Amino acid sequence: MFLLNFLVPTILIFVVLSILLSCLYVVRQQTVAIVERFGKYQTTQQSGIHFRMPFGIDRIAARVQLRLLQTELVVETKTKDNVFVTLNIATQYRVNEANVTDAYYKLMRPEDQIRSYIEDALRSSVPKLTLDELFEKKDEIALEVQHQVAEEMTTYGYIIVKTLITKVEPDAEVKQSMNEINAAQRKRVAAQELANADKIKIVTAAEAEAEKDRLHGVGIAQQRKAIVDGLADSIKELKDANISLDEEQIMSILLTNQYLDTLNTFASKGNQTIFLPNTPDGVADIRTQVLSALKANQK
Question: Mean pLDDT across the chain, nearest whole number?
Answer without folding.
Answer: 78
